[in-house]
TrEMBL record:
Any matching Pfam family: PP2C
Species this protein is from: Herpetosiphon aurantiacus (strain ATCC 23779 / DSM 785 / 114-95)
UniProt KW Phosphoprotein keyword: no
Protein name: Protein serine/threonine phosphatase
Residue ranges crossing the lipid bilayer per the database entry: 331-353
Lineage: Bacteria, Bacillati, Chloroflexota, Chloroflexia, Herpetosiphonales
PANTHER family with a match to the protein in the record: PROTEIN PHOSPHATASE 2C, PROTEIN PHOSPHATASE PHPP
Domain of life assignment: Bacteria
GO molecular function ontology, one term from the record: protein serine/threonine phosphatase activity
Gene3D superfamilies: PPM-type phosphatase domain (3.60.40.10)
Amino acid sequence: MKLRHSAQTDIGRSREVNQDAYGVGDPLPNGIQLFVVCDGMGGHLAGEVASQTAVQTMLATFPNVVQSDIPKALTTAIVSANQAVFDRGRGNMGTTSVALLIFKNVAFLANVGDSRAYLIRNNAMRQITVDHSFVEEQVRAGLMTREQASQSKIKNIITRAVGHQREVQVDVFREPVQAGDRFLISSDGLHGFVDEATILKTINTLPFEQIVPRLIDLANGVGGYDNITALLVQVDELEAIADNDPLLETLLNQPLTGPLRSAEPITEEFELPVGPTGTAPMPVAGMRDDETQQHVPITASGRLNPAMAAIPTSAARPTPTTAPKPAGGGLSGWGILGSLVVLAALVGVLYIFKLPPVSLLFPDTTSTPNQIVVAVPSLMPTTQPTTTLAPITNAPLATATSGISPTLQQPTPTP
């Protein structure tokens, strides 16, 4: 088999640090070569450390674990990267990961997070991996359209990350390859801003060595709001394999993990960055990026409350800050109760002794003159609306086709 590849990462035009990383392993004696892209997160420099640690660990681990069980080897490499990143950050940093290898004319791909792998074949492009993100789950549940998801202010929230927790769930995909196939693996700094039709046209029309630099330029051309990484692999020639090759039969029938399974129920509040970036992926449990943070409520089922999808980010609850209590300035629960008792007694005195009424709390311009107005909050329980979520479906993802005029996906506007 003959492969060629082209790769590039770019800081973009809005970030101070490039938290993306990619790696290309040396070809092994059996011809296997590993390609990896990671998109880190977790505050200043931590995301950079996370992505680089993950790439280095995967490239170092894979040659020692790959035998005939390719899906298991890919999973083991990412699990090892997860442990290495977690040990360094103790849950305070993480990274996405997408990996590709081709063996015996079969491509194996694995992913965690929202970095993607695409297959380009016969002038068409198809996304192979499935994003681990809340908007993806909303789309699969029928609660959001693909277009709404691409423009959503919370599209950066992901449900899985490498290194954020002690354990990680990896999805592995298998795809028989043909001569001329191209595989694109990328961070969301590319596919989050440049639409698939434009990516496809670029790949189909430019010489191979010009494709990746052009994709980077396209992402920067619409603002460069995030780090950008693209790695393109082309299959120039297939491996000659006998029809009854037992290893090929094994590869085609090995069990895979994935595709996407529904995330575990989550009850925490998740944080996401707002501002000009708006696309930096954030894992569960509120990992931070370098941008301003706001909270987005998540329902107990682990899905984003559908009512929040249309609310501008500025309407979300701001991040709480911890400050010392002012000395003697506030009212405790007993103090409030005592005040209500005194207020009730005063009203009773006015009623019994027929004293001239006064406004106790605030004047009511709709009432008669000198009428007593007492503001009492309602003690009746309110009924909370409930939302019924549609079941997750396994509908195929949209496929970009040729002949579509190229357009660039605009970045999410900043409120």
